[in-house]
Amino acid sequence: MRHIKAPQPQNAQDQSDLTTTIANILNDVRSGGDAALRSFTEQFDKVRLEALEVSPQQISEAIESLDEALERDMRYGIERITDFARRQRETLKELECEPRPGLHLGHRHIPVYRAGCYVPGGRYPLLSAAQMSIIPAKVAGVEEVIACTPPNTHPAVLAAAHLAGADRIFQVGGAQAVAAMAFGTESIPAVDMIVGPGNKFVTEAKRQVFGTVGLDQLAGPSEIYTLADDSGDPRWIAADLLGQAEHDTASRPGLVTTSRDVGEATLEEIERQLSSLSTAEVARAAWEKQGEIALCDDLEEAIAYMDRIAPEHLQVHTRDPHGVGRRLRNYGSLFIGREASVVYSDKICGTNHILPTGTNARYTGGLWVGTFLKTCTHQWMEPAGVEEIAPYAVRQSEREGMEGHRRAAALRLDDSVV
User: Fold this and answer.
1) Catalytic pick from 223, 312, 317, 353?
2) Which keywords belong to this entry (predicted)?
3) Active site includes 403?
């Protein structure tokens, strides 16, 4: 593998200052509750809030502010995301079985009671971000969904959160919102798990509260890689890479190809398209720092290298995209064929865009309806099952020197044991 364009070396950043800063915020919110939230909101967002919760009137005004086309498109996206989440939920079956006479085993999929969805503010009003976390939670059967988003968020984001099914919405952002959802305050109830993307402060706060609450993942900057052979179209590839590069200056766009011509033409095409891109300031910084074009000798090498990268979004632009796609293992979401641009999943087609980054796709997938479900086992026995299982349990307990275990097992065979 050789590079036509290599990413710049990344300096290891000292996380100690960030870790300490976030720990202090978490502790302050845990002890100070709503007062601490108001103080941090004034400090970081320059907003003085009387009420932390978004009122029904504010939600009504947000929905009324939508133009007809925006509301229609928003509802269409909600329908698509809901439909796919429901189809996913239908694949998760409860289990009841009797593997041996009198031995009954099974499992249930039980939704968490209360979920907290962080909806970022940031550079752009990401209307789909609210839908991607809230809708799967409601489809899973979560009783109460709490949404937190920074104050002065675009009204359309509030409308999106409400229409997606959030039960309560709070105008609190950043690490302090994570703390509030994890520990609870006078206004914001503690949740069972926190999901949703955010900046490095939100991510570090999620890392520190893990264990107190469950998490979806620790997401980093957006990533997109395209795997292409000589049939790849440099214009389409460049457009897709820049579409993700405009998220953030830390975004990671890349191309892995078996064709030097495609690689070099994509490099030229990126420069051409940047010249007319309104978000070029951000996209160029991301491309210059993290952008990569890798040239591989054949598809085998390209697939192996892509599995090592394990990107958040992985596009396959080859002559046999379905065949190549089946050979890939590590990705957050796979986009098979050049028609399947990442932007469709990012916004509206139905699959979730909250996906693993930073090679985490080696061991996990993205947020989905199953994120909010606990698969909990159960068992019950009839006398025939006890007669078969108990002697094994007795002998195993004896070998391990666990007399209490042995007695509990033997009692079911002989009531006079204890």
Assistant:
1) 312
2) Oxidoreductase
3) no
Name the helix (H) or strand (E) containing 147: strand 144-148
Residues 294 and 311 in one domain: yes
Q: Which residue, 182, 215, 248, sits at the end of a domain? A: 215
Report CA-CA distances (Å) from 371 to 167, 193, 212: 19, 10, 17
pLDDT, tens digit (0-9, with 9 covering 90-100), for 26-76: 999 999 999 999 999 999 999 999 899 999 999 999 999 999 999 999 999
Residues 192 and 45 in one domain: yes
Does 113 share its domain with 172?
Answer: yes
CATH at 265 = 3.40.50.1980
C-alpha 284/C-alpha 295 separation (Å) is 21
Can 312 be counted among the known catalytic residues?
A: yes
Choosing from 313, 317, 339, 405, the catalytic residue is: 313
C-alpha pair distances (Å), 82 with each of 35, 66, 93, 132, 379: 37, 21, 19, 9, 33
